[in-house]
Amino acid sequence: MSGMNDERFSKWTSAQAAAFQPGRMSSLLERQCGYLAKQLRTIEQAVFEPWGLVDDILENDRAMKAMVGPLGNVEKWMQVLDTRWERETRRLTHLLSGVESRFRLPAVDESRQLFEKFVGSGFTSALAEAQNRMLDLQRTIESIHAPWLDVRDPMRSIGGLAGIQAIGRVLTVAPPFENSVTATLRSALGDWRPANTFPERIIDDPVARVDFYSDLGFDTALTDFPVTAFQQTLDLTGLRPSSLPPIIPEYDGWATPAPEAEEEDAFVRSVNAYRLLNGLETQLRDFVDKMLTEAFGEGWPKHRIPQAMYQSWKTKRELAIEHGEQPRRLIAYADFTDYIQIIGRKDNWQNVFKPIFKRREGIQESLYRLQPVRVCTMHAREITSDDKFLLYVETRRILKAIGRG
Description:
Elements: H1 7-18, H2 22-44, H3 50-58, H4 61-76, H5 86-100, E1 103-104, H6 108-120, H7 126-131, H8 134-143, E2 149-150, H9 154-173, H10 179-189, H11 201-204, H12 206-216, H13 227-236, H14 264-296, H15 300-304, H16 307-322, H17 338-344, H18 346-357, H19 360-378, H20 385-401
Antiparallel strand pairs: 1-2
Helix pairs in contact: 2-4, 3-5, 4-5, 4-12, 6-8, 6-9, 8-9, 9-10, 14-19, 14-20, 17-19, 19-20
């Protein structure tokens, strides 16, 4: 990938891979099994037939969405777990098979019948109606080659696909921060205007994270699909990037983290998310730097950001140089939350950024939605389907707005 030859990324991947030693895996997965067992404890206290157990757990869609990934991890790494977890892992892997059995791949004729029923049922969402491209939706449905239809609620599955299709289309044809786009995304991804902070527990607890997103208004039908079908849908609708934004070395001030990798798939997902976020962040820094330099000159950081922020950037750069790193542009040492303050500052907004982002709350929401997944990425926590969807949508939106998409 372009821009990925920086030694920072090599160090980051080495730190990630080091976490995959069997000794560490055992302790990490014991913690994971303990977490999953806790989620099931109330149900396991009762006596159920095996499929009765699955049916009861399936009632909690939020928990199941967050647990599918970890369940697969436990099955993959069973050989490094202590024998006392054998019963738990067997029951959890049985649960995973029950979750996957909810979905099936309908034949083409059945897909067309379901589509016609969806269009005529009144279930059609505002997102689907707004796109006026129902034929595209039908083609998307017929192009998915993995089980995607929830046998319990087929119309909800089609509604989820319609929502994904509509978001992909609106980000293609409309200016990304127009009021109508912001309103459309708010109806699908939730109202994040008050979410300038988030509870720390959601980083380690994916169920709490799913709940947090849902409480803000995230439409869980958008991501309630098996992994393969979800990935295919993102590709078909153009939401998953076909290439990553180039990393600009002089704006790449990411410190090398020491994350804890839970398992192989989390490692791969974290690497992909890292590359996408790092590319986005260097592109955004370059954009902000060039815009403010053009408006106020090279010395803008000293006068157009809070003094404490300015001093923090200088300190970070001095420490980096002391450790043998080449000096980068000062904004390369910004924290992710700094961009909201810089762009939203009254004089910066009026003089520079308002024509680009239209309404201050629009870009604020966009960056708020990326904050949890960025923290999870840097600490190699489980990346859920909700995280990936927020990441792909908001990354594409911001890059398009700043002319880098």
